[in-house]
UniProtKB/TrEMBL annotation:
This is Retrovirus-related Pol polyprotein from transposon TNT 1-94. It comes from the Eukaryota. It comes from Cucumis melo var. makuwa.
């Protein structure tokens, strides 16, 4: 199970991210390293997700289904971002008004 999870994570990382965590030998170690690298960079991540979503263009070198899958992934990430921002706004509103 450990190897399958480790492999699934590795297969879904971009090359530049993979270079950052390739020295980790366990799934737990890799996950902790990813959290350390990316969890606290919230504002730049939001800007990055938003930019990728709004500038998406189909790649003529890919199949239509591959482009569609990439767009679905971006849409999902953007929806999560919007939900997170909405939750933060609600918390902020309630904490200042009640």
């Amino acid at each position: 199970m450990e190897n399958a999870v480790y492999g699934a994570i590795v297969l879904n990382l971009s090359d530049n991210v993979l270079r950052e965590v390739i020295g980790e030998e366990t799934t737990y170690g890799m996950w902790k390293k990813l959290e350390e690298l990316y969890q606290h960079k919230d504002l730049p991540n939001r800007a990055f997700v938003r930019e990728r979503f709004f500038t998406f263009k189909m790649d003529d070198n890919k199949l239509v289904i591959e482009n569609l899958e990439e767009f679905k992934k971006l849409s999902s990430e953007f929806k999560e971002l919007r939900d997170k921002i909405g939750d933060e706004k609600n918390r902020s509103f309630y904490s200042t008004h009640f």
